[in-house]
Specification:
It is elongated, with a radius of gyration of 35 Å. The longest helix is centred in the C-terminal third of the chain and has 41 residues. Helix 9 packs antiparallel against helix 11, helix 13 packs across helix 14 and helix 27 packs antiparallel against helix 28. The N terminus is likely disordered. Strands 10, 11, 12, 13, 16, 17, 18, 19, 20, 21 and 22 form an 11-stranded mixed sheet that branches. The protein has an 8-stranded mixed sheet with strand order 8-28-27-26-9-23-25-24, with helices on both faces. Strands 1, 2, 3, 4, 5, 6 and 7 form a 7-stranded antiparallel sheet that branches. The chain starts with a helix and ends with a helix. It is built from 30 helices and 28 strands. The protein is of the alpha+beta class. Strand 17 and strand 18 form a beta hairpin.
């Protein structure tokens, strides 16, 4: 295998001979043969950590160490029943942690698969777009600015092509690539300037390369093999939870030590007080909280993906819920990106073009009269310029591969006929230049340059104009006035120009683009998305401001913004922004929501100033130059269809459908995820504190036969954590999530209402349980085991009823009691288990319980259900007080 790769790398002459034999790229059959023969992309690398490691990792926790010590001590003391329950708790915690971690990892892995990479190749002499994983040695790949190199390649054509190889070499400066052979051997990667390597980024220019190695055999693949490992899933929120859990653990250690000392002073045996102290720690520490939050995030990510928003990292899920501003591109995001040229202006007059979409059928009209475009020379040359200065092409199935703007120009030209002149060189479009240029060989062998770009830029480079008969001095203001009028009707306007050069021209440079001859303007319509209008209205309701930032004309942007319902006081251009200080622009940002003809620097500046004003900013982008703004934003959003690989790498989220409505859907899902996390905390902390308080209260009161034995606490903690805690993350989305204001970024995790619930619920649960225990213990000669069984079931039923309260923090839940099937199933399982430990003779002997009478159950349900009505009444009173304010 290595010998074949060396053969491909040997000299440029051999590479070109391979190209000639393959007629500009290998055939489809040859590609399939090589793919199956070598299996470059079928190589699977085993993960470093397998099943046993992940399972064992669940025991790496200070609390677990305490439980292991307790299990060992009970074994030494021949308390085998206690030991069995403790081991059961350990195994249950390990299993649930393992399952939840696996679910989270699988969710993220499935999302990674959705982020499929595609590349453009030459096969059978035809341009084809294929999945990058189907590349084989010998494929010719077309490279352009913004794309990620899909494999290691020998460069065979380069036009100002520069590559960011920092991920591979650590060198921060982009490397300009050449096609010449390099005689030296064993060069460092950074010096192999006629090679491009998989995983690096094309930052400028265009080029072609022939694939020499793919997949695990690339330079990046070799490094990946060395360092590949399972990454721990972590987010700022999870780290906050873990810190909170550690702080609670330290507090509980102090409380447990205090309880142990008091217990010894109260006369408890060492074994009894040790088990009581261990059960207090188990009960009070929310050890399952990080796992529940991780699975909440993972489920949220999967739901977002189903709604075309692919999350690249978990922290952005948390941030989405607090977004206050969305800075969006116009084309393709707020509009349909189905461009159609409807109007053409030349010095001979204005023409209308019929037809829609990418169907090359339509007619040309002049003052309402159908005409033959060939009778107007300036019109024909304007169409020719749009066709030849163009990288889009029409597929056999009728679709367009390439930028929609170029697709529209190509289709408008095809309505007049086919234009073809061999292309000798080109200058690709870059946002800084705001133009594209191509060099062609005309039919008589002379050279012709065609240029297209923004009207302002093209007019600036022109010294004359063509009216179909002759050239004359450029009338700049007249042309720009017509461009403004077209833009005011919501059209995207592209200007065309040309220049004839000498026969010996074979290379095209920026310095050649002067003294151009103006040809005409093509205006294309890109109607607003209907769903974007609805989404913007939702944003207003949700307290989220929408700002349009586009490279299009100011009047076009303002017109589209009005149609979409974006509230703005006028519109500002990039030139306007350059004249403003940061202080002045901050003032304008309060009232202006449309920015046009902007540069990447303008976009980054707007994002920076919004963040300085305390806004949580989401930004969309698709080009390589959008990467700085995407990285500067709180949430960078790249376009999945039209976005470059550079933009996707810089983003936190990728829109699979390039649709603004999907951003709003993702914000809604982000709010839902955070709401679920809050509800997990809302249920977990009060119930855990109540269980721990029950143990502590018994010790402090010196009750030698406490209401809850250590085994009971272990049982409650294990059963409820699995059967009642986990279903919370499957709670259906709350209504009116987008009717609330964004969550303040500095909002604490433990809301005041959660702190209040911890105190209220814990005190009520413990007080009611103890009163019921003492009442039953002293009545009708009931033995202590019956009173303890009642106390055990009372605590469990308290947690069941409070779980129903926790379906919403603020809203009453009477209309959604049966909305969560997973929760209903969990409750049914818990009730079944409680009946088993109450009425099974075998379990009675292990857990020291006894059968109860019907009246006991009535009493348990009546007392424990009070918490449900108390909390729901509190919610009602809070809402009433807010309405009265």
């Amino acid at each position: 295998m290595s010998g074949e790769i060396k053969w491909y790398r040997s000299t440029v002459e051999e590479v070109f001979s391979l190209l000639e034999s393959c007629d500009e790229g290998i055939s489809e059959d040859e590609a399939e043969l090589r793919l199956s023969k070598y299996g470059f992309n079928e190589v699977e690398i085993k993960k470093k950590h397998g099943f046993l490691y992940k399972f064992a990792k669940q025991f790496k926790n200070p609390l677990i160490y305490v439980l292991l010590a307790a299990a060992l001590l009970t074994f030494v003391l021949h308390e085998y029943a206690d030991m069995a329950v403790i081991i059961g708790v350990l195994l249950a915690n390990a299993v649930i942690g393992f399952v939840q971690e696996n679910k989270a990892e699988h969710a993220l892995e499935s999302l990674a698969k959705m982020m499929k990479s595609e590349t453009t190749v030459l096969r059978d002499g035809q341009r084809k777009i294929i999945p990058s994983r189907k590349l084989v040695v010998g494929d010719v790949v077309i490279l352009e600015a913004g794309s990620r190199v899909p494999a290691d390649m020998r460069v065979i054509y380069s036009k100002n092509m520069q590559v960011d190889e920092s991920a591979l070499t650590g060198e921060s400066l982009a490397v300009e690539k050449i096609t010449d052979p390099i005689e030296k051997e064993d060069l460092p990667l950074g010096d192999q300037k006629n090679m491009v390597f998989g995983g690096t980024l094309i930052t400028k220019g265009i080029g072609k390369g022939i694939v020499v190695s793919t997949g695990a055999f690339t330079e990046m693949g070799r490094i990946s093999n060395l360092i590949q490992q399972t990454q721990k899933i972590s987010t700022p929120l999870l780290r906050t939870i873990e810190r909170m859990e550690k702080n609670i653990f330290l507090v509980i250690l102090v409380v447990s030590a205090f309880t142990f000392i008091i217990g010894k002073l109260q006369g408890f045996s060492t074994v009894d007080i040790f088990l009581a102290t261990v059960s207090l720690a188990v009960a009070a520490i929310p050890e399952g909280l990080p796992a529940l939050i991780t699975i909440s995030l993972a489920i949220g990510v999967k739901v977002m993906a189903s709604r075309n928003a692919i999350i690249r990292n978990l922290p952005s899920v948390e941030t989405l819920g607090s977004a206050t501003v969305i800075c969006s591109d116009k084309t393709g995001t707020l509009t349909k990106n189905e461009m159609t040229v409807t109007e053409i202006f030349t010095l001979e007059g204005s023409f209308e073009v019929s037809g829609s979409g990418y169907d090359p059928v339509g007619d040309f009209y002049y003052h309402g009269r159908k005409i033959k475009p060939s009778t107007y020379a300036s019109l024909m040359q304007t169409l020719e310029a749009g066709a030849l200065c163009n990288d889009a092409y029409l597929r056999e199935d009728g679709g367009i591969d390439g930028h929609p703007t170029e697709g529209a120009l190509l289709i408008s030209s095809l309505k007049a006929g086919k234009f073809h002149l061999p292309r000798l060189d080109s200058i690709p479009f870059e946002s800084e230049l705001r133009l594209m240029a191509t060099l062609h060989e005309s039919k008589n062998g002379s050279r012709l340059i065609y240029v297209k770009g923004s009207p302002e830029k093209i007019v600036e480079l022109c010294s004359s104009q063509y009216d179909g008969h002759q050239k004359s001095a450029i009338q700049s203001e007249f042309i720009l006035k017509n461009a403004r009028e077209m833009a005011s009707r919501g059209l995207r306007v592209i200007a065309m120009a040309y220049k004839r050069v000498s026969f010996n021209y074979n290379d095209l440079h920026i310095s050649d683009l002067n003294d151009l001859v103006f040809l005409g303007l093509q205006g294309m319509i890109d109607p607003p998305r209907e769903e974007a209008k609805t989404a913007i209205q939702k944003c207003k309701t949700a307290g989220i401001r929408v700002i349009m930032i586009t490279g299009d004309h100011v009047l076009t942007a303002h017109s589209i913004a009005k149609q979409l319902g974006i509230r703005t006081y006028g519109a500002l251009s990039g030139v306007d922004l350059d004249k403003m200080s940061d202080t002045q622009l901050k003032e304008q940002l309060k009232i202006v929501s449309v920015f046009a003809r902007t540069s990447p620097e303008d976009k980054s500046r707007i994002v920076r100033l919004l963040k300085e004003e305390g806004e949580v900013v989401a930004v969309t982008g698709d080009g390589i130059n959008d990467a700085p703004a995407l990285e500067a934003a709180d949430i960078g959003i790249a376009m999945g269809k039209s976005g470059t690989e550079v933009a996707k790498e810089a983003a936190d989220m990728v829109l699979a459908d390039d649709n603004f409505a999907s951003i709003v859907n993702a914000v809604e899902e982000g709010r839902d995820v955070y709401s679920k996390i809050q509800r997990v905390i809302l249920w977990t902390l009060p119930t855990n504190v109540a269980e721990g308080l029950a143990v502590m209260a018994a010790v402090l009161l010196g009750i030698t036969n406490p209401p809850l034995l250590p085994l009971h606490i272990l049982w409650i903690n294990t059963v409820t954590a699995i059967c009642l805690g986990v279903p919370i993350v499957f709670e259906p989305k709350e209504k009116r999530l987008l009717s609330r204001s964004p969550r303040p970024p500095g909002e604490p995790l433990l809301l005041p209402i959660i702190k209040r619930r911890i105190v209220t619920v814990a005190l009520f649960m413990v007080t009611a349980t103890f009163l019921l225990f003492f009442f039953q213990k002293g009545s009708n000669g009931r033995d202590i085991v019956a009173a303890q069984t009642i106390a055990l079931n009372t605590i469990v039923f308290f947690e069941i009823f409070y779980l129903l309260n926790s379906k919403s923090i603020y809203e009453n839940v009477f209309d959604r009691l049966v909305s969560n099937r997973a929760m209903l199933l969990g409750i049914a399982v818990v009730i079944t288990l409680q009946l088993l430990i109450t009425y099974s003779n075998y379990l009675n002997s292990i857990l020291k319980t006894t059968p109860l009478e019907a009246f006991d159950w009535m009493l348990i349900i009546c007392i424990s259900s009070l918490i449900f009505f108390i909390i729901e009444t509190e919610k009602y009173l809070i809402k009433k007080r807010r309405r009265n304010k």
